[in-house]
Amino acid sequence: MRILIVEDDLRLAGLIKRGLEAEGFDTELAHDGHTGLRQARQGNHDAIMLDVMLPGLSGHAVCRQRAAMREALHDAERLERLAADLLLLARTDAEEPTRHAPVELSALVAKQSARRAMVRTRLVPAVVHGNAGHLERLVTNLLDNAEQHARTQITVSLTADQDQDQVVLRVADDGPGIPENDRERIFERFTRLDNARNRETGGAGLGLAIAKAIAISHNGTLRVTDGRPGACFILQLPQGEMRWMTCAPGPS
């Protein structure tokens, strides 16, 4: 753990530094507010210990400016993600060719679901033909949306409809659900049904639009129904060729 100590009393700063290093911490020293702020901006510190009364720039001012810097960085990262999302939508709109290959959708869904505590899965082995990165983004967006609205649980099921030669993924949450009149609108770009969500707790309203665009680009469909309770998103994709692995019997 790396700690920045900002203290103008040289003796006290030395005592704190030696004490922390004796406990195994990595430390860095600054003796005035301006130097402390510069080091805080340039370094990757886990914590900052600073005196309130500092020469040049008070401890309170250091905290305020560092917080403003972090907020600006956060905004820049959000804009970068937004630009990437818009570029992905533009490419799907233009039907730009992407590399398609057999994708084990069951493994992809299991991987993304395992990272989320509320998710319960029922999956069968299923393969589709498509762009693995785009399909992973589709699944991630559906799970992200479910997490934002679920109260206690998200149920994810993957089945294979042999009669229709389709793979069906269902992502259901136990949240408030989606009014029937809004079930088409939620797939429109920049749509957020909950106006109370701000930019910190919600995205730009592109997640479901991207998910549907990816589904369509894979000759599939994405819709939402009443989950009773909550909402249930249903993704249908053409089934790919399942390559079964056979094992020769060993010696008896």
Which properties best describe this structure?
252 residues; alpha/beta; Rossmann fold; Heat Shock Protein 90; 2 domains; 5-stranded mixed β-sheet; 3-stranded parallel β-sheet; 38% helix; elongated; disordered C terminus
Count of beta strands: 10
Uncertain ranges: 195-201, 243-252
Instruction: State the name of the first-level CATH class of the largest domain.
Output: Alpha Beta
What is the count of distinct domains?
Answer: 2
Largest sheet: 5 strands, mixed
CATH architecture of the largest domain: 2-Layer Sandwich
Helix content: 25-40%
> What is the H/E order?
EHEHEHEHEEHEEHEE
CATH topology of the largest domain: Heat Shock Protein 90
Quaternary structure classification: single chain
Counted by DSSP, the helix tally is 6
What distance separates the N and C termini?
58 Å
- What is the 3D form? elongated
Overall mean pLDDT stands at 79
Helices, strands, pairings?
Blueprint (H helix, E strand, L loop, with lengths): L1 E5 L3 H13 L3 E5 L2 H10 L4 E4 L8 H35 L7 E4 H10 L4 E5 L3 E4 L1 H18 L4 E8 L4 E8 L33 H11 L3 E6 L4 E8 L14
Parallel strand pairs: 1-2, 1-3, 5-7
Antiparallel strand pairs: 4-6, 7-8, 8-10, 9-10
